[in-house]
Amino acid sequence: MRKSVFLGLAAAVMFGTSASADTLETVIKNDHVKCGVSTGLAGFSAADEKGDWQGIDVDVCRAVAAATLGDASKVKYTPLTAKERFTALQSGEIDILSRNTTWTLTRDASLGLNFAGVNYYDGQGFMVSDKLGVKSALELDGAAVCIQAGTTTELNLADYFKANNMEYKAVTYDTSDQTIKGFEAGRCDMLTSDQSQLYSLRIKLAKPDEAVVLPEVISKEPLGPVVRQGDDKWFNIVKWSLFAMVNAEEMGVTKANAKEMKDSKDPAIQRLMGGQGEKLGLSDDWSYNIVSQVGNYGESFEANVGSGSPLKIGRGLNALWSKGGLQYAPPIR
After folding, report:
1. Which interval of the chain is the signal sequence (predicted)?
2. Average pLDDT score over the chain
């Protein structure tokens, strides 16, 4: 078991996951949602030159703020390293963790946490300098590998190299920024992380075109928001805030047309645009506020990591189920 897991378990025992805690009540009292994000990962959670946080993970927190407080801007962001993130959530320092975090059995069942859905389906990959002339990770026996500590990436890397009878030297760092700097400085032959993160890190290089993402994808990495166990009301709110964005894309409801869609004759759109709030302890315009202020899932994806972003990642597995992808949300009814 990794050191970070021991720390998480210790924090769970120390702080507990109070079933009596009412996170919604705390959020309303504070008048903001406390959101744990990365220390800076383009497309997912990163502060721009004005200090404003943006990204597909950030939009989940903005959606929760829109649903609970009627204002997507009412979010306080806490940058966290991979090793810090679970303890921060367990201790109550944050209300929600939305930080490119992989849903696994250990994290779901032994840390006192609940994953509230998947906002990005990913998989671990490898990036090398094109000067190496390497076309496959199977050519990297004995390589030095830059890797971020406290992540599932460490175990996946060990499993992959062991399964293929290869050896490697791990060069570990606490943050993703440190890993890309180590890679650029030549301290390792290869950098491994979720493929989405590789594309985000590559654009930070002085010469991005000289780095190549290899074709191998060696793991399943369903990334999504996380909350504490013991507060089902808050769990439902976070879960359905994400589902509202996915449902909105499926129904063709966008940030631009949300207001006119309130007059739709389609019963499903009517429910999305107003209603069901009482069941979540929210006002009936909770989901309308999400779509009108944050947008639907597709809008968030395209602006942050897709065609409208520097990353230009294809939808792939993150396309709607009706378009060959895995994004699927239960109906709002």
Report:
1. 1-21
2. 92
